Structures are given as structure tokens and as C-alpha cells.
Input
Amino acid sequence: MTAQGSARRLLGKGRNRLSAKLREDSLDGYWDFPVTDGIYPEGDVLFAGWSATSHEAGPSRVQIIRDASVIASFETPADGAGSAEFTNEDRVGGRWSTILTLTAADRGATIEVVTSDRNGRRVLGTRRVQGRPQPTLPLLRTEGALDYPMDGSTFSAGGVIHVSGWILIAGRPADRIELFLGDEPPLLVRRGEGRADLAEAIGETEPYAIGAGFAELVAIPRHWAGTEVTAQVRATSATGSTWISPPASLRIIEAPPAIGRLQPSPLLSSLPARPDVPRETGTPIKVCVFTHSLNLGGGELYLQELLLRMAEAPDVELLVVSPNDGPLRQELEDAGITVHLAFQQGPSPAHYLGRVTELVYLLRAWNTEVVIANTLGVFQMVEAALLAGLPVFWAIHESFTLEVFSYLNFGEHGIHPAITEHWHRSLTQAKTIFEAEATLKMYAEQVPDLDGRCVRYGIDLQRIADYRGANDRDEIRTSLGFERKHRVLLCMGVFQERKSQLALVMAYAEIAQVFPDARLVLVGDHPTEYAACVRQIVAALGLDEFIRIIPIQPETYPWYQAADILVSASDVESLPRSVLESMAFGLPTLAVDVFGLNEVIRDGENGWLCQPRSGTSLLAGLRRALGVSPQKLAAIRAQCEHDAKSFDGQGYADEYLRMIRSCRKPVEFV
Output
């Protein structure tokens, strides 16, 4: 490598105390690649990382130094680029990367990466070039396939294209995978999909094959009808190598006429107008709550926390209607809430309006005044409440487009078009509630007449405080098998594709040996094909010592108490409950920056954010979280505990009660 300048001449010496303080407060960064000592001595090597500083001290400059000689130098953000990676308004920065060619003559050389601004400098790392050999050629497989859509396929406008395939570049999963569809801008697709079939076909020589899949669901615009579009995938590795799939030509047609039609109900057509029922002063407001399930899911726990607090209000009477029973029913009934298990009926055109009519009569029979609906999928119940002339507050948690939600829940053909019209109309007539501004914005773009607002939900802070006070953290860590030296990363969530546990494991494999005292705990295992793939790749990569897989836990508090950092690798998530709970336990979160995560996580202050669907960005986040000093981690934990005070569940219960009480119009008796 040829020196491009003198480090001593460019960097200078003799910084005073003031500049050192400014440097500590503003200048930051990380050297992500190569991951550790053992840079291969021959060939092209990716050097990459990130750097940021304050607007006043910026821009920051990064220099790569070989044996005291500068061999590469550049500013961040490069060429005036924005600072999308850094969410704090007082910071400016960006990612840096370059390819350097190492030869046998570089063996034993010391490589140093330094970032600097107008106030000072910071060494991001010093590593020595080792002489270990390159990986054997059988591991350098570069191939892949765009399995779906197939060339010549036909799709209906307004439907969904299921994109899937696999890719290995030099035996490793791709860092980023982009879908090019027609003239649309490229779309990042989900990487790290489980491919047990591929692993079986390739064999043990390719341990990453089990996680080499990719997939995405893409809504087809209606104006594409009558056109042909091309689908193509481009995968890019961490070193910049690319793989491009052969193009697939797709024909887009008008949606064929739907089979069947909505069957009207004579009972619905003869339904009398809603009577004004006089309410005596002090009579409880009768609130009917529609939900999809009473199991232990995020949406169900959102409702449980809300209803248990609302049940304490003397002026509210609650009735919960659910088609699916579950463990939450007993808790609700113990709190004095009536639970009615309704008949489950899918949205078929033959029965849709009949079921709506039955729900209208149920609401009338109970003298309902206000309705709360929980989750997007209860639209049939929402329509019944609207037809009954009742105000509806509809809590929507799902961060999917309407077309993709329909595909995921009702199959390839989705919901009957006539029912879809009813669904969309209900979205404009109800008062919709979202827990994240970003999710509200996405729905407002799909439903222009949406009457929506953001109400941040909360958790039981007192219960967490009581648990922490009654249970010694060191004792819990010991009981769970952790030593004092271990830094424990916790990923809390049921194993499923959008939670991206596979992608997290593959990123963690890159640094497990760099941070040998770190432990990653994945809580949420259950018997599914995807979960089996997670277990298989941990074994295939020899990570059993560093990664623990735990089944779904009815009691999660011990794991929060034992952990040091929470990791949320999900690429579709409004605002996960685990993030709020972890902050109440004093745990900072490393999260993929999607939807509402950056509304509660401030990068570098109470956690860390990384880009979605990027292996290098997730790896960089892991390095930042594991590389932070114990003193800095303690300060971040204290900030989390302070910020968590705003997550008190009583806040959103009070807001719902305020909205409900505003709906009552007292009628005086004559």
C-alpha cells in the first residue's frame, strides 16, 4: 500500500483541555470492517465504518493510517451527503468505506483508523495485519435464484406480488437485496429468510445457506393494468460484490370479476334507528370492546393493560367480545369485566352482512354507547358498530399496507372487493388510534380521509419497579447461568420472519469471537419452520456457546432483569412492547430504525439505531452496543430509566377515558 500523506503532519498534536472536552461531547464513530485482527494479506479488503460530530465542529474527517502514513482520507458525510444514519438533530455524519489492496508485503503492518474534527481527534481502532490464509475455494460459492415471481407470470392489478429467492455471495449472505420492479425506485427486501431446503441441498460446506433466503410482498398499483413490467433482484455483499438475477417479465391484467356477491340481510334492512336511551347521572358508560384474540400477543397485551386500568373507573362498564379465547380472559373476568366469546366468521361474501347484523343486534341488546376496536382485522365488528350509530375508537397496531395485510391474513386472493370497500369506508368513519406517528402517516397516505391520531401506549411501571426491588439482579443472572463478566444481549419476541432473528444470528456470528464475554439470548422459540431454521444456523455456525435459544416465556421479567442490552432486529414494527419494558428495566435498545422506534430511541443517548435490512448496519450496531464502556453503559441505563417514566400505562388509559366520556350526551328525564 502506498502512503498518501503523513499522519503526524495532518493530525497535529497538543490539544488543550477545552478541545478534549468538546471532542468527548461531539466526536464519535466506529470502525466496522474488517471486524478484527486477521485482515487477509492478499487481495481487496473492505474498510468501512461511521463517523459523526456536532454541526459546529463538523464535518469530521476519517484517515486510514499504515505504520504512521496516511493511505486514505475522506470527509463524512461525503460530498455533502445527508446524515440519515444519525437521528440526533445536533449531530452530522455518515458512513465511510473504501477498498484497499493488501499484499504479502503488508504482513505485520499496523493499521490505524482516526476520525477528527475542528476540535480534536479520536482513534477508532488499531489492528495488525495477520498472515492467515484465505478461505478455501469451496466456501466461495456465489450463486442464487429469484424463485418467484417466475418469468411470464400474470398478476392482477390491485393484488400482491410475492417475491422470494436465495443468494450466497462468496459463501455469505448478501448485505443488501434490492428489488427492481418496473420503473419504480428499488425496494429493499427482507434478507435472512429461512431456507432449510437450500441447506439440505448444498450440504454442510455452506453453513450460511440456511439463512440465505429473501422475500417481500409488493402491492401492485391498479394503474399497471394492461402493462408488462420486469422484476429483477440485485444483491450486494459487505465487500461490494454484486449478484443480479435474470429478469422476469410479468403481465399485469385487470382484476377478474369477483366470485359471489354480498348477501343482504333482511334483519339489517329493517333495523330501526338507534334510540336515544336516557342515562341517569352517575350511570356507567357502557363500552363494548371488540378484539381478535385473548392470547398473549402484542396487540392483546396492549388491550389488557388498557382495560385493567379502565375497569377501575367507576363511570365505565366494559364488555369484551372476542372470537378467540385465551389466557387473558381470566384476568379480565377477575377484574370484573364481562367477556363474550363470539362465533368466528371469516369475511365471506355470503355471510359478511349477516354477521354484521348479528353484531348490531348484540350492541343494541346491551345498550352500548361507545365501541373500542382492537387491531386492523376486526373491521367487520367496526362496521357493525358504525351501522348501530355508535362512536368507534379503533386501535390499529399493524404496520402493513392494506393490500399486504389482506394477503397475509386472507390468502392470495385477499378479501372480496365488495368487502374491501366496506373495510376502507369503515377506516374513514371510525376514530383511528395509532401508537406511532410513522404508522399513522403510512395509513393516512393510503386512506386520505382517515380520522387518525397517535396515542402513545404504556406499561405497568409500578409492577416492574416492584419486581426489580424484590429480586436481586446478580442472583437472577447466576440462576440463569450468566457470569459477572458477561454482557448479555436480549432479543425478546416470538420467532417469526419479520422479527429477523435469523439475520441477527448471522450478524452476531461476525463478532462472537471479537467479544467472547458477550452472550445473545433469543427468547421466543416455538415449533415453526422458521424457528427450526434459527436453531439450525446457530448450530451450523458453532455459536452454541455464545447464543442461547429460549422458548416463549409467560414470565419475561427475569430475562429483562438479567440482561444488559435489548436488541430489536424487526424490520416491520410499530412500537414493540419489549422496548418500553426494557427501558423500564434500565436497558438500552439496539433497534432497526423502522416506524415508531426512533420516536422513543435517541441514537447514542438511550440506545442505538441501525438501518433496516442491512447486514453491515446491524453488525455496526452490535459493535457499538458491545463496545461501549461500562461507564458509558451505566449512563445510558440511567437515561433509559428516566425516559421510561413517560411510559406509564395510566396515561393512555386516561386518554381513552377522556375520549369515551366526551361521547356521552346526557338526556334529562321529563
Residues 5-128 form a domain with the Immunoglobulin-like fold (CATH 2.60.40.10). The chain has four domains: 5-128, 137-253, 281-458+652-661, 481-648. The longest strand covers residues 43-54. The two ends are 96 Å apart (CA to CA).
